[in-house]
Amino acid sequence: MRVRLLLPLLAVVALLGLLFLGLGLNSRELPSPLIGKPAPTFELESLEDAERLVTKEDFIGEVVLVNVWATWCSTCRAEKPLLMELARGGIPIHGFNYRDDRETALRYLDVSDNPYRTIAYDPTGDVGMDWGVYATPETYVLDAQGVIRYKRIGALNRQLLLDEVLPLIETLRAEQVRGSS
Amino acid sequence: MRTIPLVLCWLSALAAWLLPAGLALAIAIGEPVAFPTEAQQRQYQTLIRELRCTVCQSETIHESNAELAADMRRRVRDMTLAGDDREAIIDFMVQRYGDYVRYRPPLQANTAVLWASPFLLLLIGAGVWWQIIRGRKRMSQRPAFTEQERQALDRLRRGE
Questions:
Q1: Are B88 and B128 contained in the same domain?
Q2: pLDDT digits (tens, 9 = 90+) for A1-26
Q3: pTM of the predicted model, to two decimals?
Q4: Which residues lie below 8 Å from residue A44, measured CB to CB, with a gap of 6+?
Q5: Containing domain of residue B51, as a range?
């Protein structure tokens, strides 16, 4: 009889436990199916120069970050100082200018810093779709072979860089050195 | 009694006013798309109701007004027009956004619990129901008094 009385209590505790676990999950962060796969190929105009084509080849060759940004995205603007720090620290960053307007984007980069080595201009978001972009900013880590090794949806932050991104870059760079020697 | 026709009148006026607004909204979201064949039209219409908008996660791309949903609808339309079949389009989306874009999850190892849970719940419910029924039956069958007690009662009634 005592056991039967305890059952509802156990059920409620189990349910509460699940709800509590659910609080810790971020349902906005979907696991990307692209991790571990070669970055999708693309061919886009360069943001700075419509005559010049940017392709996946421009992004690969060393361990890089690929950052998807737009001027209309305020989180991207807030994230940029951190990207500047990374770029100054010697981490190459390439960018996709996503669903943006060339004039506006160029003016924005003129009046502020530019952490990007190459910027591919993707006004329609077609290449963004191939890369599975759905919420800017997004940041990918590509290894020297151009395989996507990590993806962050939303802004990077210092803690995340220290905990996940920088150690990963270290490992990948070490792999690259081993691979080439 | 005279108020009823008046109310009806008001209601129809209200409907006449609201209906076009509703229609306009429906068109704005579901941009009319023309397809050469009936089958393509059907495929497009079912697919946009089965793919999830990844930004606004509780809406299909048919319902959603997000720009990404518009992009996805456009892609579904283009692929349908190009002759891609249903599987090809779903695969395309799953490769980019993961299984999450499917409102109808595939039956595979990591979704087994999801698929089985309604049946599990039904089983648990049936178990509880059976327990209760059994308990009730036992209660109604249990003799209220022993033979001795009944005789004692009889004697009491007779006033012995």
A1: no
A2: 577 788 889 999 999 999 998 887 76
A3: 0.72
A4: A53, A54, A55, A96, A120, A121, A122, A127
A5: 31-106
